[in-house]
Specification:
The complex is a heterotrimer. Chain A is 26% helix and 13% strand. In chain A, the strands form three sheets. Chain A has a two-stranded antiparallel ribbon with strand order 1-2. Chain A has a two-stranded antiparallel sheet with strand order 3-6. In chain A, strand 4 and strand 5 form a beta hairpin. In chain B, a hairpin with a 2-residue loop joins strand 1 and strand 2. By secondary structure, chain B is mainly α. Chain B has 18 helices and four strands. Chain C has a single domain, classed as 3-Layer(aba) Sandwich (Rossmann fold). Chain C has nine helices and twelve strands. In chain C, a hairpin with a 3-residue loop joins strand 8 and strand 9. The chains are: A alpha+beta, B mainly alpha, C alpha/beta. At the A-C interface, helix 8 of A face helix 3 of C.
């Protein structure tokens, strides 16, 4: 009997050492553990499609959440390649199932307008490959101004650094010139920033560059993200201008 | 008499390929950055494309597969034939663990005590089953423990930023303190080095990551555990290793022992990376064997070899070794023999009853230290 | 009133400001590159040549606007050929080393190549530097608003500083020109300066004292600045302004966008504090048609 025949024969009658000897019950228990894990993941409020974590801001090009979690292998390539250090391994933003999947952390870094590196490197295309023009049209969230902290709103001081950095061709942050009184009772004309929800793509550069430390006076949350039709606030999607 | 042997050329070749793939991984890691203009550089995607675990999970959970991942079929095909060669020769994470395992000091006896097969090595198979079932119902979390994911993620979010911080701090301190004597300043040496590091190794800007502490601690733990058990991750945890173990449980290339030459010194066990019990071919576990060739290299009597599987029966055989041992030729001891396949000859102890070549009468046990036949020498080279 | 260096004593005072305007407005990249080179060269020659500003064996720090990850035609960054020409002229004047850099708002690794400035400057022989964090040192500015600030050491230690901004709309201060461009030499929490941009920029400009300002107005950004992005906001002015008076150059630059110089805080303050004159016409800028 030549080796090849023997070898093939061993698939039918495996020799002792070729048996893994795992035990049926133990294997069953392992399988049930896997199933149980999925069930437990499924009762996270995120999975209800009613409750969305505002901190779950995914990179532009990310697939809808169920598909994303089914593809992402938490390899960290996107985190390494991101030139602005915006992408971080999630803690519980995406539930337990989402641990170590990529989320954007705006206080540390923002999503550069002309960049699509994360979608270039993702090995499983959980962040699908989008070219830059397409990427610019994807909203990953929406910025909001915290009027209690914003210098022009709360302290009558000039600023609008957020508006300065906003990269959309027609800026998604505009301002109103408002007459306010300062503490001495003098009249000042201050530019107070406002966000345009149609134009804002949630890139986060406003939050990253805002001079108000600790908690920025303009922040991005995930609402309005293009990939999730449920996580919206506007009646109709906005326009993006040219660029 | 056991003697210190020259390491076999195959072991050197293996070390070379391990180092090569490891350096490749590190190079690709460093290349995963922005390249002008707006190009991502070659990611470690090369390794992920070879990874059948990721491909399988992706397929199960998302019913879709990136085409490039079909390359993992090559890995599976070769594993079918050569068992877990991937773990022994290619996997960069495995190489890392291999390296730290080899740093263990300790006499061969102690290594033997902790190095043998352990029932807990089955844990990785259960883990694999759990991951696959979870993927089947849509939860693709194998990325938590897939070796390339684990390695890359730990490097990118924890280890590399930490090393970067340390190096920059060192060179900044020297730059600021500017030590030296008169016109001779240390910075004249350190600044050019810093320039080279900045160009080829250091990050453009210091990266910071949420959750880096946990990821870093986990990584360091897996590395440190190698001092507790050889190649701890590979043996006990790695789901890719488990998958390859399942696929490779009946390889074509098998360990073969010349029973005549063997004098049960058990040196082959000392440096066995996978805990595959190479000293007894009936108990050799192909699912745990990394084909590292250490046993073959360490055996002073050159009793061990890896060949294409050959039946030891008196039937014609292509291997040149079959004539050497009359016991083999009688074919009573091998599982391929008619008696065995009829379920009569199973226990290794039957060998003893035959009064044949194995002097060690007890079944393989972890920590069997009272074996007087064990021969070691001080300063036994690791690995 | 101009601010002359000690090495510019002449019998007949050379003009302290020049405005070079291109007669045509080429559309193709090669044409624009040619325009940039000729305009820059002529504008500086009209001031007496680069020799007036750069001496032999000088180390020159050229500070263009490389602040944003934008292409040259989007007019968010200085025209690369303007920068390259300045580099060339510095070497021709005998400079030992010409350094080109910026502390940008988008990552340098992105903005430097996409703006085209890295490639053009390197081709001209400059050393393009990615700034080293360790070299931002706290320095005494002793200004009205800024007492101390982190400034890049190598810039201050260079023999000459040449400021090469591009003319852009800016919604806070109406326009970003030369003095605003100097923010690319400092570190620290720059995003706080906006609370008193007028005062802070004048302090900075007085501290850094660039030898020469070359204002790129070949393409100007008329809206949604300083980042821009919409090509419709870019207008061709086909002009280069060169001068030694930072306030005057900025004042002229403001008019190119249609703004009155006295509506811009840092120009008014610069004039008031004696940094320069807002009345640029009083300097009799030399007008050249190329």
């Amino acid at each position: 009997m030549n080796p090849l025949h023997k070898w093939i024969g061993d698939f039918v009658h495996p020799p002792k050492e070729a048996r893994l000897d795992l035990g049926r019950r133990a294997v069953l228990a392992a399988g049930l553990a896997g199933l149980g894990a999925k069930l437990l993941f499924g009762i996270d409020p995120q999975a209800s499609k009613r409750s969305f974590n505002p901190a779950l801001i995914r990179p532009p090009g990310a697939l809808p959440e169920d598909e994303f979690l089914a593809r992402c292998i938490r390899c960290g390539e996107c985190m390494k390649v991101c030139p602005t250090n915006a992408i971080h391994p999630a803690s519980l933003e995406g539930g337990v199932e989402g641990v170590w999947t990529p989320v954007l952390n705006m206080p540390v870094g923002y999503c550069d307008y002309e960049c699509n590196l994360c979608s270039q490197v993702c090995p499983t295309h959980a962040i699908r490959q989008v070219d830059v023009p397409e990427k610019k049209k994807i909203k990953i969230g929406l910025a909001y101004i915290d009027k209690n902290r914003c210098l022009p709103w709360a302290y009558s001081k000039t600023c609008i650094v957020c508006e300065e950095h906003c990269p959309t061709p027609k800026k998604a942050i505009w301002f109103e010139e408002v007459e306010v009184l300062n503490i001495q009772g003098e009249k000042l004309t201050i530019k107070q920033p406002r966000v345009d929800p149609d134009l804002c793509i949630g890139c986060g550069i406003c939050e990253t560059k805002c001079p108000v430390k600790g908690q920025a006076a303009v922040r991005v949350t995930s609402v309005g993200e293009t990939r999730n039709p449920e996580n919206q606030i506007l009646l109709s999607p906005g326009s993006f201008g040219e660029g | 008499m056991a003697q210190k042997k020259k390491t076999s050329w195959i072991v050197w070749l293996r070390r070379l390929t391990q180092t090569g793939f490891f350096l490749l991984f590190c190079y690709l890691f460093l290349q995963t950055v922005y390249h002008p203009i707006n190009k991502a550089g070659r990611g470690v995607t090369f390794f992920f494309n070879l990874d059948p675990l990721v491909a399988l999970n992706s397929l199960l959970a998302s019913h879709a597969l990136v085409e490039a991942m079909l390359f993992s079929l090559v890995t599976l095909a070769v594993t079918f034939i050569c068992g877990r060669w991937f773990c022994g020769w290619v996997c960069p994470f495995g190489t890392l663990h291999n390296f730290f395992t080899s740093l263990r000091g300790g006499r061969a006896k102690q290594k033997l005590a902790v190095g043998g097969y352990n029932q807990w090595q089955k844990a990785k198979y259960y883990g694999l089953v759990a991951f696959l079932v979870a993927a089947l119902v849509g939860a693709d979390v194998v990325g938590w423990l897939d070796p390339f994911s684990f390695f890359f993620r730990s490097l990118s979010t924890s280890i590399y930023p930490a090393i970067n911080k340390g190096l920059v701090a060192l060179f900044t301190w020297i730059y600021d303190a500017n030590p030296g004597v008169g016109p001779v300043r240390l910075t004249a040496v350190t600044e050019p080095i810093y320039g080279v590091l900045r160009k080829y190794f250091l990050a453009v800007e210091q990266p910071y990551y949420w959750g880096s502490m946990l990821i870093g601690v986990l990584f360091i733990s897996t590395v440190v555990l190698n001092f507790f058990r050889a190649r701890f991750w590979c043996r006990y945890v790695c789901p890719l290793g488990a998958l390859l173990g399942v696929v490779g449980k009946n390889p074509l290339v098998r360990l073969k022992k010349n029973e005549e030459k063997c004098d049960s010194c058990r040196l082959c066990l000392v440096d066995c990376q996978g805990g595959a019990t190479p000293d007894n071919p009936l108990e050799w576990k192909p699912s745990e064997c990394f084909y590292c060739w250490n046993c073959e290299s360490d055996c002073p009597a050159q009793a061990i070899s890896f060949t294409v599987y050959c039946h030891p029966e008196p039937f014609a055989c292509h291997s040149e070794r079959s004539e050497e041992s009359p016991q083999l030729a009688q074919g009573k001891l091998r599982e391929g023999s008619p008696q065995f396949s009829q379920g009569k000859l199973r226990e290794p102890s039957l060998r003893i009853a035959e009064g044949r070549n194995c002097r060690d009468s007890s079944p393989r046990q972890v920590g069997a230290q009272n074996d007087t036949a064990l021969r070691t020498e001080t300063g036994e080279k690791a690995r | 009133m101009g601010l002359f260096g000690s090495d510019s004593l002449r019998a007949v005072p050379a003009p302290s400001m020049s405005v070079a305007h291109y007669k045509s407005s080429p559309a193709e990249p090669d044409g624009i590159a040619e325009e940039a080179r000729r305009l820059t060269r002529q504008a500086i020659e009209a001031l007496g040549g680069m020799n007036r500003f750069v001496s032999k064996a000088n180390i020159v720090w050229v500070k263009p606007d490389i602040g944003w990850d934008r292409r040259p035609e989007q007019a968010a960054t200085t025209n690369p050929d303007v920068v390259a020409t300045i580099v060339e002229m510095c070497y021709q004047a005998g400079a030992k080393k010409v350094l080109v850099s910026d502390n940008p708002c988008n990552p340098a690794r992105l903005s430097f190549p996409r703006s085209g400035i890295q490639q053009a400057a390197e081709k001209a022989g400059a050393e393009v530097i990615f700034l080293d964090e360790r070299k931002f040192k706290k320095m005494s500015i002793n200004g009205k608003v800024l007492k101390e600030w982190e400034v890049y050491q190598d810039t201050v230690e260079a023999d000459r500083l040449i400021n090469v901004p591009i003319v852009k709309n800016h919604n806070l201060c109406l326009a970003t020109l030369g003095m605003k461009n100097l923010m690319g030499v400092i570190g620290g929490p720059r995003n706080r300066l906006h609370q008193d941009l007028g005062g802070a920029l004048v302090d900075l400009a007085a501290f850094l004292k660039p030898r020469l300002v070359v204002l790129d107005a070949i393409r100007v950004l008329t809206a949604n600045g300083p980042v821009g992005g919409n090509l419709a906001d870019v207008k061709r002015k086909d002009t280069i302004v060169a001068g030694v008076d930072q306030v005057a150059v900025d004042a002229l630059g403001a008019t190119l966008l249609g703004y009155k110089p006295d509506s811009i805080g840092y120009i008014v303050q610069g004039n008031a504090r004696g940094l320069g004159t807002i009345n640029f016409n009083s300097l009799s800028p030399k007008q050249i048609e190329v």
